[in-house]
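Tumor suppressor candidate 3, Cyanistes caeruleus. Tokens?
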Amino acid sequence: PSSLFFSLSLSTQLLSCNNLLAEKVEQLMEWSSRRSVIRMNGDKFRRFVKAPPRNYSVIVMFTALQPQRQCSVCRQANEEYQVLANSWRYSSAFSNKLFFTIVDYDEGADVFQQLNMNSAPTFMHFPPKGKPKRADTFDLQRIGFAAEQLAKWIADRTDVHIRVFRPPNYSGTIALALLVSLVGGLLYLRRNNLEFIYNKTGWAMAALCVVFAMTSGQMWNHIRGPPYAHKNPQNGQVSYIHGSSQAQFVAESHIILLLNAAITMGMVLLNEAATSKGDVGKRRIICLVGLGLVVFFFSFLLSIFRSKYHGYPYR
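Tokens:
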């Protein structure tokens, strides 16, 4: 009789557990049919993400989207997150094994406190069984928050492969067409005098612009899609320079571009002071200005390098 009672009790618990799981999955599927990203407060998070039973993975974006938070990075990351969630929702592989959710600080501050989270945005994966591991937190600072990078991370954690579909963007095509039209119109207007094409200074300036763009990390930004800057939601402090040598912010590349341009201008002025045949006093002033630009801005550049590569100067 005791073994029979134990079997009946176990069967009842399993049936209850299966019913609860079915209700949770049905509710999540219903929410997903309305919106690709499910908004959650503290109660929903604890019930559908933290509490067992679960046979599905949940991707949670912890963010602060309210205007008073002034988190521009959160809005940019949210746009990429929406693209990824929509790609999954409307793909042929869509199933109840993966759900995308979002927890806003102003709607779930208790969740942030429970997880000891003090920065946003943050992406986390909650597996069907067990607690999240270190790799279940997306390394946003190093990789950026592009939808394609998030999709790779999700595939690694869940074996669910998502092909990212972006809405068509014709701004690049329009800009290229306008540029070609502008250049073509300029050449047509100056068709009787095309000496400016052979202007060495003009070509040198164009070459320098390309060099500044590449050496400041613009290509890295294009590939990785890092945030423009980082704002700490706790104290509101904005960081424009990334503290690691493995990553950077978009604002950081702009700062490096301007520093390199200022140093180059100083070198040009020094060369002009040394090679020109004008008034000695004027050449001395140009030399001092050029030297000042090189010393000041190169020192600034070294200070940024020191903040990213700890231990510099190397001995």
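The beta strands are 37-39, 57-63, 98-104, 122-126, 230-231, 238-239.
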